[in-house]
Amino acid sequence: MKRKNGFLGKDILSVDQFSKEDLTFLFRKTTLMKKIVKAGKKSKMLQGKIMTVLFYEPSSRTFGSFISAMQRLGGGIIPLQGMTYSSVAKGETLEDTIRTFECYSDIIVIRHPEVGSAKKAALVSTVPIINAGDGVGEHPTQALLDLFTILSKFKKIDGLKVAFVGDLLNGRTVHSLSKLLAKMGKVEFFFVAPKILRMPQEIKDQLKNRVSIIEAEKLDEVIKKVNVLYITRVQKERFSDLSIYENIKNFYIITKKLMEKARKDLILMHPLPRVGEISTEVDNDSRAVYLTEQMRNGLYVRMALLAATLGKIK
Ligand code: NCD
Question: Which atom of ligand 1 approaches the CA of 167 most closely?
Fold first, then answer.
């Protein structure tokens, strides 16, 4: 049976909207995109399409990979980052900015510090909106690339033990990925965080009927058990009192020594940027995927997502 493209013309706001069928569809296309890139082929799939990338918060990977994805498929881009040079600096509302760029482009990718901002943009936009991070809310496309990375290694989700480590309170990547994994199968979660940075209760409430959750503050025992260790930086920009950040920023550091305790089949993931949570001596460990597969998969998944949303794949 041919699977339907459930992404066509849709906004991508939260992982809650994806069905298992959607993901199977998207990941099959992601594998195709990977082949296109690896073969160095020039694709014209999105020729004539233009994407606005509207970023009100800093970004390297998400910004760069969306642009690369569009260009690798032959499309055009309007890259806006920083906003100092756009009318936002003159006090323009988000709604008016969206109304502007829907006139110039076929899809808008937005990153903004406010939770719910992508949804707000989608309410006024006639072109699809992709949420590339709404404050401490969600980061659905990061979760897609993370899930693709995990599936590429383990083939299935059932039975996997996954540790999320670091700023689980403010980290939107862990919010999205934990919800997405719970949807995919019977996983066991280990939420490892200092007390003040624990996973928000509302997310735990959403997860707890489907998966088992163990919360811990120490990593030493947890690291021995898990198949996936997903660590995040402490999100400095979400702290109003920077002295609290300074005290807590180095709470976890993955070192070579700590990795000796981990399983042979572990994968060590990080959405990046890292600011000291993983010592560089770990980078060459074959279990470390954050500087390699994980990042590359971001390009392939976003190529597939743009093509699916714009109706260029069936
Ligand atoms: C993350 C983000 O922006 O949420 N980065 C990313 O998109 N890869 C993680 C972070 O900033 O810590």
Answer: 12
For the cut 70, the answer to whether the pLDDT of residue 3 exceeds it is no
Residue 197 reports pLDDT greater than 80: yes
CA-to-CA distance for 306 and 309, rounded, in angstroms? 5
Q: Residue 262 has what DSSP assignment? A: S
52 lines ligand 1 (CB under 6 A): no
Residue-by-residue DSSP string for 122-171: HHH-SS-EEEEEETTS--HHHHHHHHHHHHHHHS--TT-EEEEES-TTT-
The highest-level CATH class for domain 140-294 is alpha beta
Confidence of residue 91 (pLDDT cuts 50, 70, 90): confident
CATH of domain 15-138+298-309: 3.40.50.1370
Any ligand 1 atom below 6 A from CB of 128: no
Q: Is the CB of 49 under 6 A from ligand 1?
A: no
- Ligand 1 atom nearest the C-alpha of 233 is 12
Q: Are 311 and 5 in contact (CB under 8 A)?
A: yes
